[in-house]
Amino acid sequence: MTPEEESDALLDALARGEPPGCGDPAARLLAVLLEDVTGLAELAELAELGQRRSSVSMTPST
Hints:
Blueprint: H1 3-15, H2 25-58
């Protein structure tokens, strides 16, 4: 496998959420960063949902 093919395989695995199968520090760092970004996106979605709910509950009924 060429270095380019190895890089592509690593990035494909990370995109699928699979941990890197090698001991390469850069690959481990990419995996951790991907987890952080994914977690932040999920938190933002939850915060948005919570804000919508709180806005609705604070609206006075007429």
